[in-house]
TrEMBL record:
Protein name: non-specific serine/threonine protein kinase
Single GO cellular component term: membrane
Signal peptide range in chain numbering: 1-24
Boundaries of every Protein kinase domain copy: 628-901
Organism of derivation: Spinacia oleracea
Entries under CDD domains matching the protein: STKc_IRAK
Any GO MF annotation of the entry: ATP binding
Region (Disordered): 909-938
First-listed, main subcellular location of the protein, grouped into a coarse class: membrane
Top enzyme class: transferase
Superkingdom, natural source: Eukaryota
EC number: 2.7.11.1
Length: 938
């Protein structure tokens, strides 16, 4: 390593001397460092030619007095890693690499040496590992946006040293631990008195919210800690920050009463405390005169009538109090709030006559009072609003008008209107609102604390569209038009919409325009009106300029200026070259033939045949797991132990290690690496590589953070799956299974489908795992494979068990049992009873919920989602667990039926889920077994 380091120093020295002679307007050290930093990157801009970034005006590079001061390369589809060489760009002030998912690895600690850095934006990249404490050394930092990566570990307390920080965004990562505050010996977030934005949503932060996190000296306007695992009560100190405008602590595990002094926050317009375990009386918010949107749903407040103070809040537009213990009559004056647009009070105990009357707000668009006890309704026929009253006595009467009793409203269908003839565009192009074909710059615009509902509010979307267009025109960006579509609220309480920016002159943007557009949105240069703040933009890859070649950096060969000292250092490197080459050759030989010691004559079968799986040496795996530290032990089973590891590029992996010194399971080891190295699908777990070294057998998988489906159904993971999420998990699993049965060549029978072998990633996407028992199905025309019975009791196909004949329908039976688990949250065999038999004996299709009310998971029955498509789901489940395989559907038929059920439930089955596990955290935060653990096999 010392020799390599020496050679690297020589190379940098050579570059510095070389650039000193060739770089006309760029500081020689900056030019050399930039070249070294990006040497391994791909898809660099075409303009990066020659060796003078400042003089040649490299795209994304800005200079001042020959020094590089900004690097803005957002949305360039770059791939590579940041290296420690970055620290030498001593005059760098802005670094923006947003929307480059291919930039991976860890954030180097040396970044703390960029003493003049004011803006660090790495939004939407692929960084992983912990956020280095050295970030706290960037004393001039104003913007810090590390959101939407894969950072883990705790929030560095050193960030509290950044006294000039205005914007702090660490949301949408995998950060854990408590919120850091100062204690005299170390800094904390409570010292950030000049910071306006605390964005920590969609992480895994835990513990109580420190009382001294907030104080009256702070100038915060946005405090977003939603979708975490925070416990305890909301501290009274929050009420001391009178500058606040948006507060989100929803979707945590908070308890206790809401502090009364929140009523002092007269500037707050958005307050979201839903989906916690808050108790005590419903808080009195009379003093929050700026309140536009409030959501207190799904808490355990004391039963009460609808608070009188609502009518005093003249700015109120959205009221959401689902499952909050409201009872009695809904006052008619409630609907007279002048700005009121959306009211959601479903699943309470409201009763009597609903009197909306003629004094309701002219802006009223949507009222959801489902699942209450309302018996009569008085409406204003002159008003145009949507009213939902299903599951009320009113809807059980005869001769009741049906529109108010509809359960499924559907989603927003807003799309930017077009007033011209839409042309037919070439492949990859889209028609703009001005009917011109072009390649737009697209992405998802997310409002993190919207003050309005998506239902019937087209005027807001039009306003946002025109605001964006006017802004880009004002700053002379080549934008012809802006299109907005598919606006919908997600399960995090975020409002998502698709944006497309169309070029003004050409059919596509150039790199400079794309980078500028991205920077404007990533660093919040565009400032919308209050109802659209705070926001975040997630850009899609922009491909029209893709495929650019790596720029040439070949300069003049070493000349006389190299000097004797450089030659001397080069000779030192050469002295160690032979030794390093020898070691490299030995390693290459081992990598080329890792199975030289495979026992082909024993019980292990032939040498494994691989297609691209990476070979890891024992030393590499040992280093990645910190010598197999028990801290990194995340699971165990009959096969051995599973460890969390971090590779040298920062990628987090799961390493499945067989029992020490044993060759047990060698067939399963061989089977899994052979099969997983040749199948690739988003619903199958990815095999990174393997280790067959030092007598060890280890499998290296992608790390799946949210455990197994079994963990979620049993409550071990703390993740709660509602009806829609279960449908999406079922569909994803079925699609993975369909790939194995119908698209793999030859087809594969999994042979061990069970809820413990279906993993859930950070977005709760289902991934089928554990292929140790799988069999190829392409070498027979009999329709089955005769083999020894293996699998897990409870999921085992009875026909296969009796005949030893394995078919693809054997997987269908196991999948049917998994569907039963999703319905009941019960184990296949519980207290000696087989759930399949119990369900078949209980089901009665003439009764409500097929007479399965006592078997259904209570969490489903208490969920806010109506069980739309339930009967069809049960029908499909029963078909899958038929006694004989010929009576079961094919995997393709299962997928098609689940897609139909998803549509019945009001969701597009082809829409990728953006929901992460944080929105389904339950109260159980106990540790749970890792998804790669295996349990009892037959």
């Amino acid at each position: 390593m010392r020799i390599i380091g020496c050679c690297k120093q020589v190379f940098i020295a050579f570059l510095c001397i070389h650039f000193c002679c060739t770089a006309g307007q760029t500081n020689f050290q900056d030019a050399a460092v930039l070249k070294s930093l990006t040497d391994g990157w791909k898809n660099l801009p075409h303009s990066w030619t020659g060796e003078d970034p400042c003089g040649k005006r490299w795209e994304g590079i800005t200079c001042s007095k020959s020094r590089i001061v900004t690097i803005t390369l957002a949305s360039m589809d770059l791939t590579g890693q940041l290296t420690g060489d970055l620290e030498s760009l001593s005059e760098l002030q802005i670094l923006d690499l947003s929307y480059n998912k291919g930039i991976t690895g860890s954030l180097p600690p040396s970044i703390g040496k960029l003493s003049k850095l004011t803006t660090l934006i790495l939004l939407g990249c692929g960084f992983s590992g912990s956020i280095p404490n050295s970030v706290g050394s960037l004393k001039k930092l104003v913007y810090l946006s590390l959101n939407s990566n894969r950072f883990t570990g705790e929030v560095p307390a050193s960030i509290g040293s950044l006294r000039q920080l205005y914007w702090l965004d660490l949301s949408d990562n995998q950060l854990t631990g408590s919120i850091p505050v100062s204690d005299g010996s170390k800094p904390g977030l409570d010292l950030l008195v000049n910071t306006k934005h605390f964005h920590f949503g969609k992480n895994r932060l835990s513990g109580e919210i420190p009382r001294n996190l907030f104080n009256s000296n702070m100038t915060l306007i946005h405090v977003l800690f939603d979708n975490n695992r925070l416990t305890g009560s909301i501290p009274e100190s929050l009420g001391l920050v009178h500058t606040l405008q948006a507060v989100r602590f929803d979707r945590n595990l908070l308890s206790g009463a809401v502090p009364p002094n929140l009523n002092d926050l007269i500037g707050v317009s958005e307050l979201m405390l839903s989906n916690n375990a808050l108790t005590g009386p419903v808080p009195n918010l009379t003093g929050m005169v700026s309140l536009i949107s409030v959501d207190l749903s799904n808490n355990s407040f004391e039963a009460t009538t609808v608070p009188h103070w609502f009518s005093a809040l003249k700015s109120l537009k959205t009221v959401i109090m689902e499952r909050t213990g409201l009872e009695g009559l809904l006052p008619s004056g409630f609907f007279s709030i002048p700005q009121l647009e959306t009211v959601i009070l479903k699943s309470n105990q409201l009763n009597g006559t609903l009197d909306i009357g003629g004094s309701s707000s002219q802006l009223l668009k949507f009222i959801d009072l489902q699942n209450n006890s309302i018996s009569n309704v008085k409406l204003d026929p002159g008003k145009n609003y949507t009213l939902m009253l299903s599951d009320n006595p009113f809807c059980q009467k005869s001769l009741v008008a049906s529109p108010y009793c509809n359960k499924n409203l559907g989603s927003s269908s807003y799309k930017t209107p077009v007033f011209c003839v839409t042309p037919k565009c070439a492949s990859g192009q889209m028609s703009s609102p001005t009917c011109k074909c072009a390649y737009p710059y697209t992405g998802t615009f997310v409002l993190r604390a919207p003050s309005f509902s998506t239902l019937g509010n087209d005027a807001y979307f039009t306003e946002l569209q025109l605001s964006l267009l006017q802004f880009f025109v004002d700053i002379s960006l080549p934008v012809d038009s802006v299109s907005l579509s598919n606006a919908a609220m997600d399960s995090f309480g975020y409002l998502n919409m698709h944006l497309a920016f169309f070029p003004a002159k050409e059919v596509h943007f150039n790199r400079t325009a794309v980078s500028t557009l991205a920077f404007v949105l990533s660093n919040q240069t565009y400032t919308p009106k209050k109802q659209f703040k705070p926001y975040v933009f997630f850009a899609d890859n922009y491909t029209p300029f893709a495929g650019s070649k790596k720029p040439s950096h070949i300069g003049a060969i070493i000349g006389a200026v190299m000097g004797v000292s450089i030659l001397l250092l080069l000779s030192i490197c050469a002295a160690g070259y032979a030794f390093s080459q020898k070691k490299r050759a030995e390693k290459a030989n081992q990598q080329a033939n890792p199975f030289v010691s495979w026992d082909s004559q024993g019980t292990s079968g032939d040498v494994p045949k691989l297609k691209g799986a990476r070979f890891f040496t024992f030393d590499e795996v040992q280093k990645s797991t910190n010598n197999f530290s028990e801290i990194n032990n995340v699971g165990s089973g009959g096969y051995g132990k599973v460890y969390r590891g971090v590779l040298t590029d920062g990628e987090i992996v799961a390493i499945k290690r067989s029992q020490q010194g044993s060759m047990q399971g060698s067939r399963e080891f061989k089977n899994e690496i052979e099969l997983l190295s040749r199948v690739h699908h988003k619903n199958l777990v990815k095999l990174i590589g393997f280790c067959f070294d030092h007598g060890e057998q280890m499998l290296v998988y992608e790390f799946i953070p949210n455990g197994t489906l079994l963990d979620s159904l049993s409550g071990k993971s703390g993740i709660e799956l509602d009806w829609i999420r279960r449908l999406k998990v079922a569909l994803g699993s079925a699609r993975g299974l369909q790939y194995l049965h119908e698209l793999a060549d030859p087809p594969i029978i999994h042979r061990d489908i069970k809820s413990n072998n279906i993993l859930l990633d950070e977005r709760l996407t289902a991934k089928v795992a554990d292929f140790g028992l799988s069999r190829l199905f392409g070498d027979t025309d009999k329709g089955y494979v005769t083999t020894q019975v293996k699998g897990t009791m409870g999921y085992l196909d009875p026909e296969y068990f009796m005949t030893n004949q394995l078919t693809d329908k054997s997987d269908i039976f196991g999948f049917g049992v998994v569907l039963l688990e999703m319905l009941t949250a019960r184990k296949p065999i519980q207290q000696g009873k087989f759930i399949v038999k119990v369900m078949k004996e209980t089901v009665d299709k003439s009764k409500d919920l097929y007479n399965l009310g006592e078997l259904i998971d209570p969490m489903l029955l208490s969920s806010s989602n109506t069980l739309l498509g339930f009967e069809k789901f049960v029908d499909l489940t029963l078909k899958c667990v038929e006694e004989f395989g010929v009576d079961r559907p094919s995997t393709g038929e299962v997928v098609k039926e689940l897609e139909i059920i998803m549509q019945l439930a009001g969701f597009n089955p082809d829409t990728e889920s953006t929901t992460t596990s944080q929105s389904y955290q339950g109260s159980n935060t106990k540790s749970f077994s890792h998804p790669y653990s295996d349990d009892s096999l037959v």
